[in-house]
Amino acid sequence: MEQRNPPIELRLLRYFVTVAEEMHFGRAAARLAMTQPPLSQAIRALEDALGVALFVRTKRTVELTPVGKDLLPEVRRLLASADALRPLAQSLARGEAGVLSLAFVSTADYGLLPALLRDFGARYPGVRLQLTEATSDVQIEELVAGRIDAGLVIPPLPPRYASALSYVAVAREPLVIAMSADAALELGQGAQEWADTPVDLHDLVAAPLVVFPRRLAPGLYDIIMGCYGAAGLTPRIGQEAIQMQTIVSLVSAGMGVALVPQSLRHLRRTGVVYRPLRVAGESGVSKMVVETGLVWRAAEVSPVLAGFIEIVRSRAESAGSV
């Protein structure tokens, strides 16, 4: 069955632009390295396909019709877009263009994430990033459902997804204590935001602990509990919050103390100070470290994601975290 509205070939549109620029079929044919009769036939075919006249022809002149004049800039834009397809496709194949959907835990926002984004943006400025802050459990569900490309999470990963997901550790950093400036003064620590003198958890055991709920951040929760356990202590849970900003704000309000990754020192709140932890023994020291890593679907690595993974691996190697 004959097609009633056959697609218009880009070749015909290029012929139209050339004739419109030359206003002479002979010169246009010479530019196109063809003879005049086939060019005239092609323009007639284009006019028939569009159902409008594009040129007014006489024995001596060729002029654009009003429709032809209005259509010319639109055709030029269309051809420019078509010409851009090849370099765009090649950029996409090299991971130099496209979109990367990345989620991250709030703890990554104060050290790791900005560094990765700077490195990635410098190497792949043509890639558009879609960033979402989410807890590790939410990220895993979004990742498995295909709604994000990758996520910065705190391990461990759920065992049921072990075969479907790939993971690489990016950074490991010690936990520090966030406490109110008043509490620091009571310990003889001073009120400056950061000091290198460590604080023993025994000195703060009476203070309520502000912490992530375990159901949302089991990895971080267990690390924090491990710190208390290594000191032979059981913390008194005061408040729970799912955002690091909220946890630090609660500390600022005098609601308790919090154990947070060291990079959280960059989150400044009036009345909050950060101090290193003192935990005896190698086993205690090992419990003070929180790891952050990148997770993605093992079977779906786009060129854009591959570029980001390369950036992540380079930073992990330079930091000695893998």
Task: Describe the overall structure.
- It contains eleven helices and twelve strands.
- It folds into three domains: 10-93, Arc Repressor Mutant, subunit A; 98-171 and 292-319, D-Maltodextrin-Binding Protein, domain 2, CATH 3.40.190; 172-290, D-Maltodextrin-Binding Protein, domain 2, CATH 3.40.190.
- It is elongated, with a radius of gyration of 32 Å.
- Helix 1 (10-22) crosses helix 3 and helix 1 (10-22) crosses helix 4 (66-93).
- A hairpin with a 4-residue loop joins strand 1 (55-57) and strand 2 (62-64).
- The chain has helices at 10-22, 25-31, 36-50, 66-93, 112-123, 136-144, 181-186, 218-230, 244-252, 282-286, 303-319; strands at 55-57, 62-64, 98-104, 127-133, 150-153, 165-180, 199-200, 209-211, 237-240, 258-261, 272-278, 289-297.
- It starts with 9 loop residues before the first helix and ends with a helix.
- Strands 3, 4, 5, 6, 7, 10, 11 and 12 form an eight-stranded mixed beta sheet that branches.
- The mean pLDDT is 88.
- The longest helix is centred in the N-terminal third of the chain and has 28 residues, at 66-93.
- 31% of the residues are buried.
- The chain is an alpha/beta fold and 322 residues long.
- Residues 8-65 form the HTH lysR-type domain.
- GO terms for molecular function: DNA binding; DNA-binding transcription factor activity.
